Amino acid sequence: MAGEHREEARPLGLLHDIGAMAIMFWSVLILLFPPRFDSHEFKRQLHRIGVQSLPIAALTAFLVGIIMVVQTATYTRKTGATSFASFVAGVAVLSELGPALIGIMFSGRVGANTTAELGTMVVSEQIDALRALSIDPLKFLVVPRFVAICISLVVLTLIGDLFGLVGGALAVDLVLGVDYLSFYSGILDAGLIDELFVGLAKGLAFGVVISITSSTYGLGVSGGARGVGRAVNSCVVATAIGIFAWDYIITWIWYQWLG
């Protein structure tokens, strides 16, 4: 599958990987409607993937809120437009940098780990053992991870929004000397509900990208331990490209067609 001929940078190899991901996505959808996957494995993955990723997601969003306020500090001091700092920080945290950076951090932690885990199971013939026991690897391994990753990333994006706005309020108070209540008032006056829903939609899309890409490269490993390393590297690169591509697509669709 996606692990073969990884060193050949040819268009045919790229098309092969895209086709493998499309097949993986379709196979997962078939198993999801109606849901047919191991609930115990799903709960275990939800804790491992979602709960344990909470600190890094919260810290990432918190720093994004601070950075956006610091970036606008010079303009805000000159003009006295404190609402501008609120607007920029709100847009960045809710719909742009917040979801994207959380997705990138999440893919580095969860996506790479999933690829390595599944790839190791392929190399050690555990996947073949599951098939010998009439256990579908997609139903037992991939679908629980898919659902857990998608749910986790949406929830982490929502929690990240909260921490990002807290970081922005803290930066406004320390850097600009503006009361944090004024910052939150500016957020409410800006009416950023659209940005909130855009960010959540991006979180869901990024979850699909991370889960499908990592599972495809993981189950497509060949060539032993070296193949696992190549698959992880390819997964990280492909996931980052997919996240930024879907970031643009969702933003364009939302504001050009729905906004």
Describe the structure.
The protein is 85% helix and 0% strand. By secondary structure, the protein is mostly helical. It has one domain (38-258). The longest helix has 40 residues, at 137-176. It starts with 10 loop residues before the first helix and ends with a helix. Mean pLDDT is 85; it is low at 1-10.
Condensed summary:
The chain contains eleven helices and no strands. With 259 residues, it is mainly alpha-helical.
Count of distinct structural domains: 1
Distance between the termini: 40 Å
Report Rg. Answer: 21 Å
- What is the approximate shape? elongated
**Secondary structural class:** mainly alpha
Query: In percent, how helical is the residue content?
Result: over 70%
Average pLDDT rating: 85
Beta-strand content estimate: under 5%
Order of helices and strands: HHHHHHHHHHH
Main β-sheet description: none
Number of helices: 11
How many strand elements?
A: 0
Unreliable parts: 1-10
Which helices and strands occur, and which strands form pairs?
Blueprint lengths: L10 H22 L6 H12 L3 H18 L1 H7 L2 H13 L2 H27 L2 H7 L4 H40 L3 H11 L2 H27 L4 H35 L1
Helix pairs in contact: 1-8, 1-10, 2-8, 3-5, 3-6, 3-8, 5-8, 5-9, 5-10, 6-8, 6-10, 6-11, 8-9, 8-10, 10-11
Summary tags:
single chain, mainly alpha, about 85% helix, elongated
